[in-house]
Design a protein that fits this description.
Protein name: Peptidase C39-like domain-containing protein
CATH topology: Cathepsin B, Chain A
Helix content: 10-25%
CATH architecture: Alpha-Beta Complex
Organism: uncultured Thermomicrobiales bacterium
CATH class: Alpha Beta
Number of strands: 17
Order of helices and strands: HEEEEEHHEEEEHEHEEEEEEHEH
Shape: globular
Strand content: 15-25%
Distance between the termini: 60 Å
Length: 271
């Protein structure tokens, strides 16, 4: 093993990872390589409404999303972010209800190895189910195609978004964006998730996370984060700004994995 990755894996084996599994609240941490990328723009954009000012800050769009004071479990961040969206749109749900919809795959229980091709995580069908023990395995996670099943079950319109323009347009339409960055948008160690069927997905080793984008302006994205303070960041807030130049690479590390989710259509709109 490389010295850095070996130390990381050894520390994880010894106990919960501080960050996604911090001592005071659930979380994830990690370090690694930032991947450069080019920002993409959509050809057709949603017209901008009037700017909104919140606590002295002006945004092109801002949705007052529900707050969640902590995560359900150490490694349940995807479900916590979904809870924020569901609650914002008037839907009460529990972790158990969401998990029953996504399904749970622990064959195999995810584990990581360093190979000549880099760090490989061997786990279940992560695009179809939640994979791993959400109480103890820092690698436990799902990807957005699995989470779509939850939003579909509650009749919330949703679609993948994969660039800055998609996030901006969603927020301008009053949609929230469920997405997979890193904890606190910090650097990461790249890894590849390999499923039993042979599918491969980019991931990060120890600081995978899920949050909700709730607003933006030219300079920043506003994020709702249910993680709360942990021993990796005692000052972590429920809501904070992330500069676009920090936000986008962190999101890109997991292949721009995100869903724009809107409220259920009114009955008159369905006729």
């Amino acid at each position: 093993l490389g010295a850095g990755t070996a130390a990381t894996l050894a520390a994880v084996a010894a106990g919960p990872v501080a960050g996604r599994a911090g001592s005071a609240a659930p979380g994830r941490t990690g370090s690694g390589l930032v991947v450069p990328f080019a920002t993409r723009r959509a050809a057709t954009r949603t017209p901008k409404p009037e700017p909104v000012t919140i606590n002295g800050r002006t945004y092109d769009a801002y949705i007052p999303a529900a707050e969640k004071s902590t995560q359900f479990y150490y490694y349940s961040c995807e479900f916590d972010a979904a809870w924020v969206i569901l609650k914002t749109f008037g839907i009460e749900t529990t972790f158990e209800e969401q998990l029953a919809i996504t399904g749970l795959d622990q064959d195999p229980e995810p584990y990581a190895e360093e190979t000549s091709d880099g760090v490989i995580v061997y786990g279940g069908e992560v695009a179809e189910y939640f994979c791993g023990d959400y109480t103890s395995n820092y690698l436990a996670k799902l990807r957005s195609p699995s989470m779509r099943k939850v939003f579909d079950a509650y009749d919330l319109p949703n679609r993948p978004v994969d660039d800055r323009a998609g996030i901006e347009d969603a927020l301008l339409r009053g949609e929230l964006v469920w997405l997979k960055p890193t904890v606190d948008f910090k650097p990461w160690t790249l890894a590849t998730w390999v499923t039993p069927s042979g599918e491969e997905y980019p991931t990060v080793l120890t600081n995978d996370h899920a949050v909700v984008a709730i607003g933006f302006n030219e300079d920043v994205v506003v994020v709702r984060d249910a993680l709360g303070p942990t021993n990796t960041n005692w000052d972590r807030q429920q809501e904070y700004e992330v500069p676009w130049e920090v936000f986008l690479p962190s999101w890109r590390a997991q292949e721009d994995d995100a869903l724009a989710v809107g409220p259920a259509p009114a009955e008159d709109d369905e006729e």
